Amino acid sequence: MDDHFRHGAGALPVLFRLLARLPLPVLQATGRVLGKLAYAVPGRYRERLRANAAIAGYADPAFARRAAGEAGAMIMELPRVWFRTQQSVGQVATDDWQVVQDAIDDGRGILFLTPHLGCFEITARYTAQRLPLTVMFRPPRKDIMAPLLDAARGMSGLQVVPATSQGVRAFVRALRQGNAVGLLPDQAPSFGDGVWVPFFGRPAYTMTLPGKLAVQTGVPIILAAGERLPHGRGWRMHYMRLPEPLPADAPAQAALLNAAMETLIRRFPQQYLWSYNRYKVPPGAPPAPAEAQPGVPEAL
Questions:
Q1: Collapsing DSSP states into helix, strand and coil, what is residue 50?
Q2: Per-residue b or e along 201-214, where b marks 16 or more CB atoms closer than 10 Å to that residue's CB
């Protein structure tokens, strides 16, 4: 069994490198077909995607099918983004770089937050081509994925740290040195690392780490997302800076972050990963409030 595991694990990077040779339009179009086929199968995936999209006001089944197709495109474009990084970065355009440049000119470091929107893998790689960037990652749940992710990270030009206390300390050091760091802010944190605040009007257990890092180091927060352009033309990068100073308490910080993410997601909502279990209750966490908390800021 160990030999079979090692063979399968070692074959994944080879397969992804072969897929990376295909044109981006072919990869994305194939992904959209596969994504819609997966959505056509009744089950938890389809139910969660439709339910989460409906919470945000996107109840049309046609929207859910498009969102499933974009999720498939996100998966199938990964080989090219991971193993042909330079070519992929060359297909990125943005009208928002001045947002980042202004933060660089401040000289305080930058905390980039990238939700599961569009191609979040290209977002980090594009940004890292222009300034040093350290990102936080979670080890894969399945060991067979480890060689593939190790190979992908080796091609990225990114500095990576684990999603542990050690990684948090590395983030603090980098920010205090005036450097940039990045993480995914819309993952459900473990109990004790989050608070219940609304996300599209429904309470979601939201991480408090971004607010803590920003307050502790005095850096600005910039939301970043890579919008997938039609017909395999590449991606458009969106950058949005959060207003300063941040609120003093953790729930208000998390609510502000969720409101900002809502604003960014609504720019191209079909490319958000609606199938993610964003509203789950982490083990040990208190039950979610019955209703959204009053006084929470609306989307920016």
A1: helix
A2: eebbbbbbbbbebb
User: In 3-state terms, what secondary structure has residue 286?
Assistant: coil
Is residue 148 within 8 Å of residue 13, measured between CB atoms? yes
The tens digit of pLDDT for each residue in 240-291 reads 999 999 999 999 999 999 999 999 999 999 999 999 999 999 888 888 887 5
159-194 pLDDT, tens digit each: 889 888 999 999 999 999 999 999 999 988 887 799
Q: Where are the domains of the chain?
A: 2-271
Helix, strand, coil: what percent of the chain each, to 5?
Answer: 50, 15, 35
Q: What is the per-residue pLDDT across 66-77, written as a single tens digit (0 to 9) for each?
A: 999 999 999 999
Q: pTM of the prediction?
A: 0.90
Task: Specify the amino acid at residue 35.
Answer: G
Give the residue from 149, 144, 117 showing the smallest Cα distance to 228: 117
Residue whose pair of structure tokens reads 């919008």 in the numeric block: 227
- Rounded CA-CA distance 189/164 in Å is 12
What span, in angstroms and rounded, lies between the C-alpha atoms of 233 and 91?
7
**Rounded to whole angstroms, how far apart are CA atoms 173 and 177?**
6
Handedness of CA 237, 68, 263, 266 (dihedral sign): positive
